[in-house]
Amino acid sequence: MTARVIVVGGGLAGMAAALELAERGSQVTLLEMRPMFGGMTRSLEKEGMLVDNGQHVFMKCCSAYIDFLRRIGSLDGVYLQDRLEIPVVRPGGRVSWIRRDSLHPPLHLLRTLFQYSYLDWRGKLKVAQVMSSLSRMDPSDKSLDDHSFGSWLSARGKENNSANSLFDLLVRSTLNLPPEEASLQMVTKVVRTGFLSQVDGADLGWSNLPLSELHGRRAARALMSRDVEMLASTKVNSIEAGAGGEPVVNLANGRSEKADSVVVAVDHRTAQRLLPRGAIYGQERLSSLGTSPILSVHVLYDRKVMDYPFMASLDTSIQWVFDRSASLEVAGSTTVPGAQYLTIPISAAYPLISKRTNSIISKVLPALEALLPRASRAVVLRATVTREAAATFRASPRSAELRPGSTTRFEGLFVAGAWCDTGWPATMEGAVRSGFAAASAVAKFLGSRHEEGLSPSDEPSTDALAVGNLAAGNGSEEKSCQGGQARQKTKLKESA
Ligand SMILES: Cc1cc2nc3c(=O)[nH]c(=O)nc-3n(C[C@H](O)[C@H](O)[C@H](O)COP(=O)(O)OP(=O)(O)OC[C@H]3O[C@@H](n4cnc5c(N)ncnc54)[C@H](O)[C@@H]3O)c2cc1C
Fold this sequence. Notes:
Helix content is 33%, strand content 21%.
């Protein structure tokens, strides 16, 4: 008999889990409280434009995310650099390039380090020393999570302002936190994986389509073609044990759904509430993973003001600017021939997030004009702001101990989400990896049950969640709940 699996949460983690489970032969239902799938990667109508809630960028080393795009038929909807190449612009329009070569890492960055004109020779030396130290550190070393990248940097001799600006740009855009608040372990993970493990690891990619199309609609189509039941606008209120011990999902509309297995793929704060008490280690502290905001300014100029597909910037309130004119046209929003649509994402946007739209626009556009002199002669046709106050969890020191693996203390119940322990910061890659990992754990669970000769119709009558609660109360909490699950199974047999 085909096992039924319910996935709660239709973001990247939930959709990746649903995809993998459907391909492994489960009968999958995906429940999403919003009217659209895609979660934190979404598009919205603003000022007559269909804009993304924030610019989403990935690196070539994001292998799980790229695989997900391929499987949902969206690989043709992204632009992926042949070779890392970033114009870094300073006020007045001066530009210096970061480019990689095809030599083995770290030699692939040597030439750009020498040529990069915003670093004085001390800055170049500092960057080389820091990269060399990071290359010898192990991202799985948990002790690194006791320190912030900023404090580690300060402890490494005299600081250099030009090098610090570069580190600030890197850390803010990958961890959505300033360096002094970012976990050293997480920065090590990003630098090692992106810049030091493979020559093309940090080549950048982003969507040429609105995110609601790239992820939402296309993933929904791919999942439906694999017979996944997709229920949007369906909010889950709680998860509990059914009479037979199977997980039961209680919906806000009053209905309840039984399944052989459930994957909870919501954000960490909602997971804390939805999961049965004691489901994961430190569940009551999950919300202390916190949140970090991202804000984006979207501006439509009547003419082309930027020649690059994207650029980074130093020493202004602007970190990145992307030309997203192509996605605006695809969205069918109002376009004017020759107009250019730019989006300016601002990570760790604490000082700006609660400011009024007009005040943000009046601060950011002059800074943009200082970088792109042609913008000051162009007409702003439309400008708007999107805000995500809880864009990501805070990858700060000691966050790793709060991130669970996919398994829980309860039989058949699993978790996924960018906040889970994937080794990655809150990224699309982390979300997809967590979804695939949860699907593998479900398949293993269903497989072992199949081997034991249990089918949904002849499950033991013992309340597995209640047994799980007993296990949770025995004081032997473990972070990875794999061991907890084995223990529950023993108890289940004992009590059956
Ligand atoms: C503005 C912004 C910019 C970003 N930029 C980047 C970037 O450049 N690169 C990058 O890699 N990452 C970026 N990220 C992070 C990335 O988008 C997220 O890490 C990832 O999308 C999280 O996916 P998820 O599936 O784990 O969670 P979510 O996307 O939060 O999905 C959870 C889903 O669960 C649903 N849900 C919640 N509660 C319930 C309930 N009770 N019942 C049913 N459904 C429920 C939600 O509606 C949501 O759809 C950015 C995020 C934001 C917001």
